[in-house]
Design a protein that fits this description.
elongated; four-stranded antiparallel sheet; mainly beta
Length: 121
Amino acid sequence: QVQLVESGGGLVQPGGSLRLSCAASGSIFSISAMGWYRQAPGKERELVAAITNGGSTNYADSVKGRFTISRDNAKNTLYLQMNSLKPEDTAVYFCKAKRLRTMILPEYNYWGQGTQVTVSS
């Protein structure tokens, strides 16, 4: 079982920066990839950025060049550096960890509780 706890959200002006963190605990040996998703009111949850254990990354077109995802395996922590923030970045940001299939369990996605990011002047 894996637990994810996000932190670092808050209120920031357009053009500002925030750094989100996601601490993973539990059966972290089974995690193959992690990512950040976001969900604004009335909208579907969407992928923001993802990273594999090997460091390969993927970003939504809307955040390319502004956001950077990274993973510190020693600290079991996922980060999202968000620069040049825009009002449309306002959303609840969720951390996700993908568990590999095991001898007795199928693959599974774990989610954090979310952290609010508000970009407004």
